[in-house]
Amino acid sequence: MTVSTTTRRFAAALTVPLLIASAAACGSDDEDKAKPGTVPAVSSEDGKKPKIEKGEGDPPKGLKVKVLKEGKGEKVAKGDVLNASYHGQLWNGKVFDSTWQKGRTPASFQIGTGNVIKGWDEALVGKKLGSRVQLVIPPEKGYGAQGQPPQIPKNSTLVFVVDLKKTMPSKIDGKAVDTQNPDLPKVSSKISDKAPEIDIEKGAKAPDKLTSASVVEGDGKEVTDKSTVLANFSAKLWSGKPFANTWEQGGPQEFPVQQIPGWKDGLKGKKAGSRVVISVPEKDFPKEQRAQFKSGVVFSVDVLDVK
Question: Quick one: where's region Disordered (predicted)?
Answer without folding.
Answer: 26-64
